[in-house]
Each structure stands twice: as structure tokens, then as C-alpha cells.
Amino acid sequence: MPNILVVGGTRGLGQELVKQYSSFNATTVYATSRSEDLDTSTKNVKWIPSIDVASENAGEKIVSAVKSGSGDGASLDTVIITAGYFATESFDEPNWAKEVAMYTTSSIGPVFIVHALVKAGLLSSPNTKGGYSSSKKIILVSSESGSITLRHPKEGGGNYGHHASKAALNMVGKLLSLDLMGKEIAVGIVHPGFMRTEMTKGVGFDRFWDDGGDAPNSIDTHTKPAVTPDEAAKSLIEFIDKFDMSMTGEYWAPRGPRDIGTAEDTLGKGLPTPLKLPW
After folding, report:
1. What is the chain's mean pLDDT, rounded?
2. What is the spatial distance between Cα 73 and Cα 165, in angstroms, rounded to a whole number?
3. What does the pLDDT look like over 116-172, one tens digit per residue?
């Protein structure tokens, strides 16, 4: 019976991942929330409340909750860390506190969560005898905004904390993949798509939902409208199902270049789906 952990399971993509995974037969979903006010009656879902990814002890609290819910034989097959924080800023108005929050949430917190899970034995893999099918998986939800190669003059600068914290997460994912390779734990970094969520709406990017792209100057005619979280979750789940050790440490866009406004400018035309992204 597959056990899935979704870190950040109450909003947007995370909420849809919980919903869709929990609909699968014989699947148990552990899902974290910052709140304590949760619907604990949802079938196949075990909620872990009061988890703030930006806190140092988040991983320890998750480990304790998983073990208490499953006993000494607790294990996880797939971990998806999708919790995030996005605030806009410009060169004229940078924001120290918001940048620190973005770095802590996006690229520092995941290190400590993964460390706690692995050290607790929750991601121990059986001997696969050279095969990949039984590998455990860690998926870090990043963004194409973390790619240095994809940055282009037409989109301009700004949003330093957003872009750089995702670039830092990409590095974290790569380094984790090297540290965990001997344990048969595959680590993937993904751009799930530009989505119609409260997060993008909260920073005013809902005005670009029907144009595509992820920044005011990245809108172009070859991009497509923002996807809904359920669409993005479906694509991501399909991608994760095929993801294995042969792809560990790589950075992917499961939905391809469709909403990356600088993809053709920087990588050329005729790009495939899924698309392996450049750092």
C-alpha cells in the first residue's frame, strides 16, 4: 500500500495532490497543514497539523506524526514538498523580511525535513538489485523562475527573493540527490506550471492567468493560459509515477514549455513535453 507525504496540503497544488492521491485504492496520504482546524474525516488522509516549513523542528514533528499514525513499521514511498511563499519586490523596493521568508520556506526548510525523514528511516528502500522500481521518491516543487538560463531581457529583473530562493531549492535538490543516491532515494525538482491559485492571485498575477507566463514582462503569444491546480496535480502525479533513479537530481517541467514565457527565446522551438529544464 503506497504511502504519500504531501508537505503543504491545504491550498492550491498541494490540496489537489492530497485529493487525487487519496482517491486511489489502497493509498494512504499524510498531509501537513499550518492550521489545526482540519477535516479529519477525509478518506485515506492522515492530517499532520501545525507544521510550518520555515521552522527548524518541522521535520521532527512530521516524523513523530507519521510514526504515531503507522506504528514502528512506518514508511513513506513518495514525499512531495510543495509548501511555498511568494512575495513580489523590485529593485527600487526590496524587502528584507520577505526575502528571508522565501529563502527559509523554499530552500532551507526542505533540507531539514528531508534530513529528519531519512534519519528516522521513513524512506528506507529495500534492496532493488540494480533496479529502480522500488526506489523511494522525493519531489521538490520549484518553479521555472529558479532557472538562470531561462531568464531573458524581455522579462526584466526584480523579484529577487522569488527567483533566487527557487534557484537555491534547485541546488538543494541536486545536492540531496547526490547524498541520497546510495540509499536508492530518487530526488526530483519540478516546475508544475503557472497556476490559478490564491498564491499567484495574492501577488496580483491573476491578471496574467489568461495570457500565460509568470511575470509581467514574460507574457508572450506562444504561452498558454494558466492551469488549474487539479490539472497541474494530474500532470505531476503522472510524471512522478514514471520518475525513478535514472532521473534523480534532474529539473523537469512535466507540462512542458507551455507556460514558460522565455522557453523559446532561450531554448528554441519544438520543445518536448515533459521538458528537462536547464539550471
Report:
1. 88
2. 35
3. 999 999 998 665 444 444 689 999 999 999 999 999 998 899 999 999 999 999 999
171: closest CA among 257, 269, 251, 268? 251
Residue 189 and residue 169 in contact, taking contact as beta carbons nearer than 8 Å? yes
As a residue count, the chain comes to 279
| Sign of CA pseudo-dihedral 249, 133, 184, 24 | positive
Report pLDDT for 194. Answer: 80
Tally the C-alpha atoms within 13 A of residue 210's C-alpha that lie toward its C-beta: 1
Instruction: Report d(CA 79, CA 206) in Å as an integer.
Output: 29
Q: Which of 33, 172, 177 is nearest to 104 (CA)?
A: 172
Residues 242-252 pLDDT 10s: 999 999 999 99
Tell me the C-alpha distance between 170 and 142, whole Å: 7
Q: What is the dihedral of CA 132, 133, 137, 140, to 10 degrees?
A: 80
CA distance 54 to 84: 9
**Model pTM score:** 0.90
State how far the Cα of 263 lies from the Cα of 274, in Å rounded to an integer: 13
